[in-house]
């Protein structure tokens, strides 16, 4: 992905990592379209950051993903980067059946949302001279945080889906990147002030330096995610799982 000159859709950019990345990409000379469900937030972002565009989109709504992306391509035929950032994470207690509502919403948002955006935009992206799909998994794709079982499962699935997507699209000019954040201070799971999560700006500084360094690795990994990302390869999976289990 070129660091500049792209037209980028960040789906899930009304707050946190998505908003932060959108603003950094905008500042780096990209045309950026922010997206999410909260129209008031989108309006505020656009008014505070002239040049940024927005579109309301709920990725759990299949018809909306189809229709809104089709309209978006009319407005921005040069769209060449898709970032599938939209995500949710909530704790689930698997002892009781009422975890199911959270589980289903999590699958619909994190996994189906990613897959639907890829389905809606890949043919267009493959027709561009050069394009990028950046999915967003998590360190928790590689060792689960047991209080959020379905979240971990969706992120492991996003990782796996991304690997296959990259192989299948190798015969196109679409490169496939996977952003794998560690714990970052955002509203996700209410960890804005968590001492164990990375400050958002520090995380974005490191991500932007990786994105700006020419050809990117398939996985965008900041240093802080490496212990969990490589726990299994390093023979530290059980120790990491115990740590994430609070045991
Ligand atoms: N923060 C972390 O520690 C961490 C670690 C690893 C991975 N991640 C991943 O990073 C991504 C961004 O999370 P964040 O930490 O920045 O949390 P966040 O501040 O809560 O941001 C979540 C974003 O997703 C959007 N979203 C949620 N449901 C959506 C839906 N149905 N349709 C469209 N957009 C939706 C939200 O916008 P609306 O509410 O306006 O729809 C918001 O912009 C997520 O995929 C998350 O899993 C985060």
Describe this structure in words.
Belongs to the short-chain dehydrogenases/reductases (SDR) family. 43% of the residues lie in helices and 13% in strands. It has 247 residues and is of the alpha/beta class. It has a single domain (7-244), classed as Rossmann fold, CATH 3.40.50.720. The chain has a seven-stranded parallel beta sheet, sandwiched between helices. Helix 3 runs parallel beside helix 4 (100-126). The longest helix has 27 residues, at 100-126. It starts with 6 loop residues before the first strand and ends with a helix. The mean pLDDT is 97. Bound molecules: NADP nicotinamide-adenine-dinucleotide phosphate (NAP). NADP nicotinamide-adenine-dinucleotide phosphate is lined by residues 12-18, 36-38, 41, 57-60, 85-89, 109, 136, 138, 181, 183-184, 186-188, 197. NADP nicotinamide-adenine-dinucleotide phosphate binds next to helix 1.
